[in-house]
User: Which sequence fits this backbone?
């Protein structure tokens, strides 16, 4: 039986159960022993927080002690640490992309800078908020020109998850007749929120019709194996609560094109990844974010028959895999989530 380590399991009970249903022995980690998913695992440990100096050494000790075959992290802040230490345990960490890929996708400013050079028309114009305080910045002037007629802007953290600290603001450049007043407005907003402006980006606001997340699995050679598109219907705390599977050919074609383009530029995705799109129509859609992990809404893709665990198992066992792309998942399948509870008498 393949032993898999899942770090940062939190509430991801369904994902733990999916691994077990597909013949994996699951050992889970979390910093909090009240994390529900721990108690659905075959075995679990308390972990150090990602910024603790003992974080990765503790994980390596557990891997060696338990004879772990493969590992995944389910939370964003841990991803760069795992990928940065990929050389320590290459086989166990085989489903993590290289550090530069994880770091660029986790850092929303780097993501914009790198991806906009490749696919200019499908990336949301983004500005480092620090540039707002440099009146002679070419970057700032270019951004103002792009958004001057818009009513709103978005500000959000450079490093962030679960839609925390994402704000929709009136367009400071449209509503003030000089740059000094616009800067003063932005400073006041940041001050009221008690946030550090240097850790934020400013983004063009996209008035979209649909938000589509695409769960994707890449093999260890960075070739796309399978994908499933799901439309968000309702979101709670940054994670999808209700969704439906869709199949847009223009989106599949774009993803296939982008995946080949990235691989040709030595930007290689491996394992589970999710792309998030804001869509107006077939001609106007934007790649807003990429996460190099299982998406929070992946259970819908699994129920729709996009079974990534099948690929994980075959790759781990050295077997050949099929490449169904978008051919086997069911369209118009709805995910409706609800709260459920269980009781334990003692926290170990």
Assistant:
């Amino acid at each position: 039986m393949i032993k898999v380590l899942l770090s940062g399991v939190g509430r991801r009970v369904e994902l733990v159960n999916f691994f077990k249903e597909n013949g994996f022995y699951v050992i889970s980690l979390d910093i909090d022993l009240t994390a529900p998913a721990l108690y659905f695992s075959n075995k679990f440990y308390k972990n150090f927080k990602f910024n603790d100096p003992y974080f990765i050494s503790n994980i390596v000790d557990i891997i060696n002690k338990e004879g772990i075959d493969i590992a995944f992290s389910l939370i964003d802040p841990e991803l760069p640490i795992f990928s940065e230490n990929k050389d320590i345990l290459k086989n166990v960490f085989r489903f993590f992309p290289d550090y530069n890929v994880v770091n660029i996708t986790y850092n929303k400013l780097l993501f914009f800078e790198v991806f906009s050079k490749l696919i200019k028309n499908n990336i949301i114009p983004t500005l480092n908020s620090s540039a707002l305080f440099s009146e002679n910045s070419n970057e700032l002037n270019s951004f103002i020109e792009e958004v001057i007629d818009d009513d709103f802007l978005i500000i959000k953290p450079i490093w962030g998850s679960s839609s925390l600290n994402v704000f929709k603001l009136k367009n400071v450049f449209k509503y003030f007749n000089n740059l000094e007043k616009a800067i003063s407005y932005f400073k006041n907003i940041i001050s009221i929120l008690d946030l550090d402006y240097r850790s934020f980006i400013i983004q063009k606001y996209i008035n979209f019709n649909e938000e589509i997340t695409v769960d994707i699995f890449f093999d260890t050679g960075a070739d796309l194996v399978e994908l499933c598109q799901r439309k968000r219907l309702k979101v709670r705390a940054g994670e999808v609560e209700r969704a439906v599977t869709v199949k847009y050919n223009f989106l599949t074609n774009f993803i296939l094109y982008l995946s080949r383009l990235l691989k040709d530029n030595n930007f290689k995705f491996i394992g589970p990844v999710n792309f998030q799109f804001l869509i107006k129509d077939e001609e106007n859609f934007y790649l807003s974010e990429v996460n190099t992990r299982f998406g929070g809404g992946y259970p819908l893709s699994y129920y729709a028959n996009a079974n990534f665990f099948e690929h994980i198992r075959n790759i781990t066992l050295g077997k050949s895999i099929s490449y169904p792309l978008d051919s086997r998942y069911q369209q118009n399948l709805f995910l409706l989530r609800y709260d459920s509870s269980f009781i334990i008498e003692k926290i170990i």
In short: DSSP finds eleven helices and 14 strands in the chain.
